[in-house]
Specification:
Structural class: alpha/beta
Order of helices and strands: EHEHHEHEHHHEEEHEHEHEHEE
Strand content: 15-25%
Length: 350
């Protein structure tokens, strides 16, 4: 296996609406920033991969228009996943492992403001039994939250404390959409209140990956990807235990997360109840700092929030604030698909 690291990370300041910006306008400053941090030019990148969803844009092959932000010339080796950018990062990591590239640019974006994202996300559901009923993403998360409460794993007060801690942590994050003392609010779908749910907003993110000595030349303290894996639950919600996440646990195991303790965890938990599930599945104790960036409860640009978790974890390693971090991304209803990566600083490199 080749040593591969995240050597740079950039993201937008996430906002409720960006009506004045196209996808290219949203992406270009982020791409310029992340490339500028490494000193690389677009034509010096070995592989480029993006993550997004045409359903959000409302038009087919919308990602091809976003490529204008990278540049039409010279020709590049490029790919796209109809997923969160965390899965684009996984594809780029595989590409580097094959030896076909030494560097990779990964970016993703999401503009949720033009439509009703709660309805758009129903397209992820089983098309025969669930999707025709149109249960939206908040209603399904509420089912999971109620299952946790019924099992005695949490209660509404504990969920409110999760929200408060994340939003307080976001006060130190200049890119967060919501920070500070955010009211719990009324029930949106019982037992979830407004404060238990993620904000709707627009945003983008990008990272640069590099292998071996190239990474060391580009970054003073690279965030080495020591392990990365992703797993999926059954599509049918009725055959799953919504109070647990076996796929997240298995992905973490295969990524090596349980071999040694981590000091930081960036969890892609758009709902407070999902953080409860993930803490248990990933065996995260109170000694682990969870979501120092504020997590998806502070900013949740759909299709970029998972990549941001990887980027935030890597950035803490770059700054010397973490030695071993876990980064998690999810997609689908009730934590259906889960990706886990373990990142380490140079001092922890064995």
């Amino acid at each position: 296996m080749r040593d591969v690291a995240i050597v740079a990370f950039a993201q937008t300041t996430h906002r409720r609406r960006t009506d004045e910006l196209s996808e290219v306008d949203l992406l270009m400053p982020v791409l310029h920033e992340v490339l500028g941090a490494t000193g690389l030019k677009a034509n010096e990148i070995g592989f480029t991969c993006s993550g997004s969803a045409d359903y959000l844009a409302g038009r087919a092959f919308s990602f091809t228009m976003a490529l204008d932000g990278v540049g039409a010339h010279p020709p590049i080796s490029e790919s796209h996943v109809e997923m969160d950018g965390a899965w684009a990062l996984y594809e780029a990591w595989v590409k580097i492992q094959t030896g076909e590239a030494d560097t990779a640019l990964v970016y993703s974006w999401g503009k949720s403001s033009p439509g009703r994202v709660r309805d758009v996300l129903t397209r992820q559901l089983d098309p025969y039994y669930l999707a025709p009923l149109w249960p939206d993403s908040v209603a399904l998360a509420a089912l999971q939250a109620q299952a946790l409460i019924d099992a005695g794993a949490t209660d509404e007060r504990a969920l409110a404390e999760v929200a408060a801690r994340n939003r307080t942590a976001a006060s130190d994050n200049p890119h967060a959409q919501l920070t500070g003392d955010v009211p719990a609010g009324d029930h949106l779908v019982h037992p979830l209140r407004t404060g238990d749910c993620p904000p709707i907003g627009d945003g983008a993110a990008a990272v640069v990956l590099a292998a071996g000595d190239t990474a060391r030349a580009l970054c003073e303290r690279p965030a080495w990807i020591r392990g990365i894996d992703h797993r999926i639950e059954a599509h049918g919600l009725g055959v799953r235990d919504l109070t647990d996440s076996p796929s997240a646990r298995l992905a973490a195991e295969r990524a090596g997360a349980f071999e040694r303790p981590v000091d930081t965890a960036e969890l892609h938990a758009p709902f407070t109840s999902q953080e409860v599930v993930l803490r248990k599945a990933l065996d995260l104790g109170d000694d682990v700092r969870v979501n120092p960036s504020g997590g998806a409860l502070a900013a949740n640009p759909v299709m970029a929030a998972g990549l941001i978790r990887l980027g935030e974890a890597a950035a803490r390693i770059h700054r010397g604030e973490s030695d071993r971090a876990l980064a998690h991304a999810t997609s689908g209803p009730c934590l259906q698909q889960n990706l886990v990566a373990v990142l380490e600083g140079e001092s922890a490199h064995v």
